[in-house]
Amino acid sequence: MAEPTGSMDYRGQIEGATASSLEDQMGAALGILEGTIEIEDKAQIASGPVGLDVGTCNIVMAQNKGNRISISKQQNAFFAIPQSKFTRQILQKNEIVFFEHNRMFYIIGDSAENFANMFNANTMRPMEKGLLTFKEDEGVAIIQAIIKTLVQRPKKLGEIICFSVPGEPIQEGEKTSTLSGHETVIKMYLESLGYTAIPINEALAVVMAEMGEENFTGIGISIGGGMCNICISYMSVPVITFSIQKGGDFIDEAVSSEVGIPATKVKGIKEAGINLSAIPKNRVELALQMYYTELISTLVKSMEKVIASSSRIPKISTPLPVVISGGAAMPKGFKERFETTLRGIRLPFEIASIRIARDPLYTTAKGALVMAMSDSK
Ligand SMILES: Nc1ncnc2c1ncn2[C@@H]1O[C@H](COP(=O)(O)OP(=O)(O)OP(=O)(O)O)[C@@H](O)[C@H]1O
Ligand SMILES: [Mg+2]
What we know:
The chain is of the alpha/beta class. The protein has two domains: 19-76 and 141-375, ATPase, nucleotide binding domain (Nucleotidyltransferase, domain 5, 2-Layer Sandwich), CATH 3.30.420; 78-124, no CATH class. It has helices spanning 19-31, 85-93, 110-118, 139-148, 180-192, 202-210, 248-259, 263-271, 283-309, 334-342, 363-375; strands spanning 36-40, 50-54, 58-64, 68-75, 78-82, 98-101, 104-108, 127-128, 131-132, 159-165, 170-171, 174-175, 195-201, 218-223, 228-234, 237-244, 320-325, 351-356. The strands form five sheets. The protein has a six-stranded mixed β-sheet with strand order 1-4-3-2-10-13. Strands 16-15-14-17-18 form a five-stranded mixed β-sheet, with helices on both faces. Helix 7 packs across helix 8, helix 7 runs antiparallel to helix 9 and helix 9 (283-309) runs parallel beside helix 10 (334-342). The longest helix has 27 residues, at 283-309. The structure holds adenosine-5'-triphosphate and magnesium ion. Magnesium ion (MG) binds next to loops.
């Protein structure tokens, strides 16, 4: 269980490169992290390596534009409405992205949430808990259409794209599902666009984006919509990787059934800004705090259990730093709560500093970009 994904499984091999050229490549890749971030709202034609975060809630693309990283993001959601000629014209006029299937219009991406809120309903997702669901026939077509709103064919055939994949999910110490179908579908689609597609573990991408100064040694955690991903990395080599299938969506759904408003609305309230250190002012805030406590507790207990039962326990004398990314780690007071809980468990090594990543929603895509750049010849 949760046995690590093997050291280099998630990295391409850089054949024929000398040590110094590798160093230059790595230096250039890491240098971009010092630059600013610019958010684009249109699909980009890749003119270099690409980092792609395929998340349950958000798909994020990162590219290097010299002294800055260009980011484009799209919600990984859809909302189906009945087909009609009139509606088609209105949607086209308003530049709403949709596609037609089985006499329905599928509104995809960021616009889906506006539609769901108008109908007082929830958006739907092609992914659940970090993985493609394959529940509906159109699921694969939908995720491809959403990715296409961000990623166009590359200028150069065979351009490297590193895309995030979750670690093996565990529940109560057991594996819960397999990743291969998910990874294969995304890889095949990106390759059909003309890329060389390389998977990278989501939490290793966090380490790549944030732990350069620590020699890529420490614990990267991504707390997203569908999952928490964890990676203990030693010099960029993933020693232990795993995930739990709980994240921001779990909080939204649990609060929704507690207070009786749609989960999509709860998500909006949560994202508008909550403070986990403040006394709750109403039922929604109280429920949000309760389920945040549950999420943090499940995550920390899973870390304790997986690390204790792993045959690859790092024998390391220096304390390990922890970086946390992902949208669900953004509320005020999150770090403090997480830190108190983590420092309350037994681990076979010391924990050094615990910090939140610089851009929690973009960290995985940035780390995937660093990997793509260092794997490009
Ligand atoms: N400001 C915020 N405060 C609290 N939660 C937020 C905020 N912004 C986004 N979120 C939550 O973060 C989650 C999405 O985070 P993220 O984009 O990192 O996940 P993902 O990568 O799509 O999912 P996963 O990695 O689990 O597959 C959602 O639950 C969203 O509601
Ligand atoms: Mg994620």
